[in-house]
Amino acid sequence: NKDSILCTDGARAYISIAKNADVTHRPINVAAGKRVVAGVYHIQNVNAYDSRLKQWMIRFHGVATHYLEHYLGWHRMIDHYGQSISPSCCLLASLGRERRFQQYFAT
């Protein structure tokens, strides 16, 4: 969406990606010790999520790209519910009642 904001670590490649996607780019100079810009733009949540996802996926010894969105949805559900996950939560998500775990792609 045009109102999306891409918050990155400031690598040069992201400048052209943001320009091509026509989205606002908020680079953060992590090398200079900055972690937050304007009090709201930060990349720590993305880094933390990436770390949790990688740790969780180790057990699978890699996944087929074809099924990647299924694994991401599964992980988002586990990450959201944590220890309070239950069979009923899983059933509702599989029936589509919990849309937040479905990944939507724009092609």
Q: How do you describe this structure in short?
A:
This protein has helices spanning 12-21, 44-57, 68-81, 87-94; strands at residues 5-8, 24-27, 36-37, 41-42.
List the helices and strands and how they pair.
Elements: E1 5-8, H1 12-21, E2 24-27, E3 36-37, E4 41-42, H2 44-57, H3 68-81, H4 87-94
Helix pairs in contact: 2-3
Notes on the structure:
The chain has helices at 12-21, 44-57, 68-81, 87-94, and strands spanning 5-8, 24-27, 36-37, 41-42. The protein is built from four helices and four strands, in the order E-H-E-E-E-H-H-H. It has a two-stranded parallel sheet. 43% of the residues lie in helices and 11% in strands. Strand 1, helix 1 (12-21) and strand 2 (24-27) form a beta-alpha-beta unit. The mean pLDDT is 80. The chain is of the alpha+beta class.
Give structural attributes.
single chain; 107 residues; alpha+beta; two-stranded parallel sheet; two-stranded antiparallel sheet; 4 helices; 43% helix; elongated
Main sheet makeup:
2 strands, parallel
Tell me the Rg in angstroms. 17 Å
Spans with pLDDT under 50 lasting ≥5 residues?
Answer: none
Q: Please state roughly what percent of the residues sit in beta strands, choosing from under 5%, 5-15%, 15-25%, 25-35%, 35-45% or over 45%.
A: 5-15%
Mean pLDDT: 80
Total of helices: 4
Distance between the termini: 13 Å
Secondary-structure content class? alpha+beta
* Element-level helix/strand string: EHEEEHHH
Strand segment count:
4
Q: Tell the overall outline.
A: elongated
Percent helix range: 40-55%
Across the major sheet, the strand order is 1-2
